[in-house]
Amino acid sequence: MTSASGNHLDLSGASRRWRPAPAIRLSLLLHAGAVVALLAQPALWPWLLGAVACNHLVLSAAVLWPKGQLLGPNLTRLPASAARRNEVALTFDDGPDPEVTPQVLDLLDRYQARASFFCIGEKAAAFPDVVQDIVRRGHSVENHSHRHPHAFSFFGTGRLRHEVQTAQAALAGIAGRAPLFFRAPAGFRSPMLDPILARGGLHYVSWTRRGLDGAKSDPVAVLRRLTTGLAAGDVLLLHDGAREPVVLTVLPALLERLAER
């Protein structure tokens, strides 16, 4: 992921061993233990069912907590070294868009800022020249799933793998470099996602603060959300693929404030 000063996180995209988060390990042990206990003491089934149901409620809550770490490592801020350099990370979701993305790139050029574009694989395949322009101008292209399905976090392992790997292949082929980071659609993360990311050498990232420009049309409110409490090391989320490109109004003011700091 690139920061406002143009530095990149130095992370390898090579496949790595999956290490389940403590909550996932406990969940697996609970399910295995419940099966063993049920075979040994069938009368305990109401208690065992209740324990498993509570476990599923906790995991479901974790899915809906975009900045949580319960399901695995989650980059919500830049490393301390980047914060000491007074950097923030600018990230854009849901593109590329043939009209909006080039204008975003022009604004970033004007302020000599670098950013990370979390692209949808299907859109990238439709507008490869825009993706190549992102790379040519010094930004990074990252993985935001292939079709951006709203039910992404409820998919089984097969469909999750297809969404991640299809986008990864498409983006690598167009950009000339495999993405290193993945952000789930809407930030809702499946408990089964991490082993798929590990196999692809991908690291999961969410954000420190987001403008909600994909849902709100008030530039003042979007800018306020991004800048209130803004600190070095923050990861900021905007959209270059929203239906109403509020980003084109917000970004110049945001870049001015970052430049002042």
Computed CA radius of gyration, to the nearest angstrom: 20 Å
N to C succession of SSEs: HHHEHEHHEHEHEEHEH
The amount of beta strand, in percent, is: 5-15%
Low-confidence stretches: 5-12
Instruction: Report helical residue fraction.
Output: 40-55%
Structural class assignment? alpha/beta
Give the overall shape, derived from the CA principal axes. elongated
What would the average pLDDT be, to the nearest integer?
90
Largest sheet, spatial ordering of strands: 3-2-1-7-6
For the termini, the CA-CA separation is: 21 Å
Please provide the count of β strands. Answer: 7
Query: What is the multimeric organization of the chains shown?
Result: single chain
Counting DSSP H or I runs of 4 or more residues, the number of helices is: 10
| Sheet having the most strands | 5 strands, parallel
Can you give me a brief rundown of this structure?
The protein is of the alpha/beta class and 261 residues long.
Describe this protein's structure.
This protein is α/β, with parallel strands linked by helices and 261 residues long. 45% of the residues lie in helices and 10% in strands. A 5-stranded parallel sheet has the order 3-2-1-7-6. A two-stranded parallel ribbon has the order 4-5. Helix 1 packs antiparallel against helix 2. The chain is elongated, with a radius of gyration of 20 Å.
How are the SSEs ordered, and which strands pair?
Layout: H1 22-40, H2 45-63, H3 80-84, E1 89-95, H4 100-110, E2 116-119, H5 121-126, H6 128-136, E3 140-143, H7 157-175, E4 181-182, H8 194-199, E5 203-204, E6 209-210, H9 219-227, E7 235-239, H10 247-260
